[in-house]
Design brief:
single chain; about 180 residues; mainly alpha; 9 helices; about 70% helix
Amino acid sequence: MLSTEPPAAPSISPAVVLKSLGLIIAFLVLMHGVVQVATFRFGHDHLMGLAPMFDLNREGNIPTWYSGAVLLITGLVLGIVALGAHQTRAPFVAHWAVLSAIFLYLSFDETMRVHEFWGARLDGWFEEWRSRDFFGGAFAHLWVLPAGLMIAVTGLGYLRFLQHLPPHTRTVFVVS
């Protein structure tokens, strides 16, 4: 006889995800250290392609792919949460959907380097100020200015959303 019960929803342990991602990050940091030592201590700046492939200071390599993949998966999961919130008529559906869009964009930006395009545009627009050393330090890359503004506006728009989350979830959410 066939069961009429709906199939169990898939479940992923946060601890397993955290441990898995932590191990991958530890591996990438270790490999970065190895290629940096090989480059600066022993003068081997290529290592059969491994140095540029694992250099955390570069883009278009394995660490960039990892970051883009994590952001993409996060965006997709947030989209699923938004869909579930919509179907159950839960509050803050739009907030979940916007978070999904933000993470999907961040994945695209990380892999396609969109921020570098905008940084070059802003460098041109503010060339006079740059020539007077007005921007430097944290503002050496001017794309951080509009990004910081967007983060501030988004943060303000999410205050009620954060207050609505359970305390533990809120803490993990903010720390993440």
